[in-house]
Amino acid sequence: xxxxxxxxxxxxxxxxxxxxxxxxxxxxxxxxxxxxxxxxxxxxxxxxxxxxxxxxxxxxxxxxxxxxxxxxxxxxxxxxxxxxxxxxxxxxxxxxxxxxxxxxxxxxxxxxxxxxxxxxxxxxxxxxxxxxxxxxxxxxxxxxxxxxxxxxxxxxxxxxxxxxxxxxxxxxxxxxxxxxxxxxxxxxxxxxxxxxxxxxxxxxxxxxxxxxxxxxxxxxxxxxxxxxxxxxxxxxxxxxxxxxxxxxxxxxxxxxxxxxxxxxxxxxxxxxxxxxxxxxxxxxxxxxxxxxxxxxxxxxxxxxxxxxxxxxxxxxxxxxxxxxxxxxxxxxxxxxxxxxxxxxxxxxxxxxxxxxxxxxxxxxxxxxxxxxxxxxxx
Length: 378
Ligand SMILES: Cc1cc2nc3c(=O)[nH]c(=O)nc-3n(C[C@H](O)[C@H](O)[C@H](O)COP(=O)(O)OP(=O)(O)OC[C@H]3O[C@@H](n4cnc5c(N)ncnc54)[C@H](O)[C@@H]3O)c2cc1C
What we know:
binds flavin-adenine dinucleotide; seven-stranded mixed sheet; alpha/beta; 378 residues
């Protein structure tokens, strides 16, 4: 039976699922709210399971070529002494385990493929309303769009991110909640010999969190600092570099040196961390949530993009099988729920440990264990 699917949101999950569905011979179209289809210039850290999932879509090498494969993650003391090394372990022959890349580079990899496949994408458009016909015994969903068009689909996939408008319609009570921390990011030149992503933990500078960096290209790396931000403050944009520098006080090693480059408020990116982990199932009738819309976590494990692409690959595979949409959605949940929940709850727990060191467990052990779990087949 031929299937027709509409994807709301042309970000990581939406583009990946569109490519996966196209590969399965399923008719798919995407609507993206941003007419310029842009992402901001910061870095993204990904691991072997992300590369494996992208490789399923034929894009593993393209992503690696667009970024900087690094040797793995190291945990350091605030002054830069080594605590532990977690070398990246490849899951795809010929491709690395750990990778840093800029968001625009990842976006380019995904958008180029979508364009090359001729998948229709409407920019500057979102849904106006949708009606799930299963509620009245039907087997489709009718969608009207803000450009005045409408369509009937077998499935509506909401890949519209952490603040999902589709989720708001179907699960109005589900809202991203501030976790107590924020993340500050800034791109700086990469020291020529830097081949690891380093995490400096256990700082005692009054801002409870951690900091680190990750190479993005041969020339560039980004530094980040995660801090407790009581009351979820809003900052004057003119003060962002100064505020980030304050939070980097007390760090030594490569980070201490790199922190000196944080001077331009316009290049400083601050985001409060807000998470929303949906219970099972992530679907109602013919509408399903994927990516951050279903399980936005904090960036403590660097797994958000990997979870989004894994969702996309698994959903496309199940929809490509000879089974009903309902059976495909059930199979999708069976393969995805526990895995994404583990990443989400563990990421939030790592942030809690940073804010309450007196109750903390061992972040190295948790990170290593989850890396091993995520190396298992999806
Ligand atoms: C500070 C921070 C740092 C992070 N660092 C990392 C990291 O290092 N590694 C990692 O793997 N992950 C990281 N993440 C998480 C990662 O960015 C997300 O998990 C990933 O982008 C999720 O993809 P998505 O497609 O679900 O959502 P998004 O990438 O947010 O894409 C959603 C898309 O939907 C569009 N959209 C939104 N609403 C509508 C609408 N109503 N109609 C149509 N389109 C709409 C948006 O414009 C966007 O294009 C980080 C997140 C944050 C906040």
